């Protein structure tokens, strides 16, 4: 395997698995308020290496806030956040936060590509400017990633020339270009035309089956059911229920989860 192939293989080798037993992401009793709006009221959440974890729940229940805590964009008032051995809630300097965000990919509903850069340049700019990668290596890796999201024929296109689904696939490839240890997806298909949702979900499904650690906030319940190892159902800043995907979706313990799923499916 050459270097270019190795960076898209995410599953840890056998000997690394034992070391990887500790959760990659570990949130303990997270409390966060905006003014007097208590948005997270004791969140416990764990993600193991290679797992796909979905967070589902009504709008305003705190799902995006949880993701923003994981990347250090928001600091909780209390509780502990570990990401790959780093105490995220204790990071203080901008350089520590930047180092964290190189390791945690984040893909949003709004893809926010650089409109004046080509697809290939969108993928190479961060690795070359912030990641210390040479232009030649960054381009070689970017082309492998574009193949992976089936956009290798679009490397010279500008974002404005692409469909929403294509732009979102570029955004996913751009996140992968930083070789993150995990990727957070926040409603990445919510703004897309229905006919392009499937192509984005296909890319995420392949990442999950390759062993990329993923946290998904999504309204695509069938997709979450299919790809997730575990599922958290949030309501009003609390985890109402969590468990293996089949359990939460097929045999929810909480009436609130059952009602939510009946409305959502
Ligand atoms: P979800 O992603 O589940 O829809 P959010 O995490 O975005 O929910 O929001 C949870 C609550 O926090 C909402 O009541 C929202 O209005 C509030 N909120 C989110 N971000 C901010 C902010 N930057 N300032 C003030 N309130 C916020
Ligand atoms: Mg949200």
UniProtKB/TrEMBL annotation:
<keyword id="KW-0813">Transport</keyword>
<dbReference type="GO" id="GO:0005524">
    <property type="term" value="F:ATP binding"/>
</dbReference>
<dbReference type="InterPro" id="IPR003439">
    <property type="entry name" value="ABC_transporter-like_ATP-bd"/>
</dbReference>
<feature type="domain" description="ABC transporter">
    <location>
        <begin position="25"/>
        <end position="261"/>
    </location>
</feature>
<keyword id="KW-0067">ATP-binding</keyword>
<dbReference type="InterPro" id="IPR050086">
    <property type="entry name" value="MetN_ABC_transporter-like"/>
</dbReference>
<dbReference type="InterPro" id="IPR017871">
    <property type="entry name" value="ABC_transporter-like_CS"/>
</dbReference>
<dbReference type="GO" id="GO:0015424">
    <property type="term" value="F:ABC-type amino acid transporter activity"/>
</dbReference>
<keyword id="KW-1003">Cell membrane</keyword>
<keyword id="KW-0472">Membrane</keyword>
<dbReference type="GO" id="GO:0016887">
    <property type="term" value="F:ATP hydrolysis activity"/>
</dbReference>
<dbReference type="InterPro" id="IPR030679">
    <property type="entry name" value="ABC_ATPase_HisP-typ"/>
</dbReference>
<keyword id="KW-0029">Amino-acid transport</keyword>
<protein>
    <submittedName>
        <fullName>Amino acid ABC transporter ATP-binding protein</fullName>
    </submittedName>
</protein>
<dbReference type="InterPro" id="IPR027417">
    <property type="entry name" value="P-loop_NTPase"/>
</dbReference>
<dbReference type="InterPro" id="IPR003593">
    <property type="entry name" value="AAA+_ATPase"/>
</dbReference>
<dbReference type="Pfam" id="PF00005">
    <property type="entry name" value="ABC_tran"/>
</dbReference>
<dbReference type="GO" id="GO:0005886">
    <property type="term" value="C:plasma membrane"/>
</dbReference>
<keyword id="KW-0547">Nucleotide-binding</keyword>
<comment type="similarity">
    <text>Belongs to the ABC transporter superfamily.</text>
</comment>
């Amino acid at each position: 395997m050459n270097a270019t192939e190795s960076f898209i293989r995410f599953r840890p080798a056998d000997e690394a698995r034992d070391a990887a037993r500790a959760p990659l992401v570990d949130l303990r009793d997270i409390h966060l308020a905006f003014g007097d709006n208590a948005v997270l009221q004791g969140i416990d959440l764990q993600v193991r290496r290679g797992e796909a974890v979905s967070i589902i729940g009504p709008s305003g229940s705190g799902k995006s806030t949880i993701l923003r805590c994981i990347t250090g964009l928001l600091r909780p008032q209390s509780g502990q956040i570990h990401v790959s051995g780093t105490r995220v809630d204790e990071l203080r300097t901008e350089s520590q936060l930047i180092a964290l965000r190189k390791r945690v990919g984040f893909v949003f509903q709004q893809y926010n590509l650089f409109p004046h850069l080509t697809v290939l340049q969108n993928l190479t700019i961060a690795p070359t400017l912030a990641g210390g990668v040479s232009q030649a290596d960054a381009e070689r890796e970017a082309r492998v990633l574009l193949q992976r999201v089936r956009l290798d024929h679009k490397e010279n296109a500008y974002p404005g020339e692409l469909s929403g689904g294509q732009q979102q696939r570029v955004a996913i490839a751009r996140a992968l270009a930083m070789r993150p240890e995990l990727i957070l997806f926040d409603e990445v298909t919510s703004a897309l035309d229905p006919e392009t949702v499937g192509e984005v979900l296909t890319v995420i499904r392949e990442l999950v089956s390759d062993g990329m650690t993923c946290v998904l906030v999504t309204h695509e319940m069938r997709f979450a059911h299919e790809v997730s190892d575990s599922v958290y159902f949030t309501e009003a800043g609390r985890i109402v229920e969590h468990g293996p995907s089949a359990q939460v979706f097929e045999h929810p313990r909480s009436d609130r989860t059952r009602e939510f799923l009946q409305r959502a499916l």
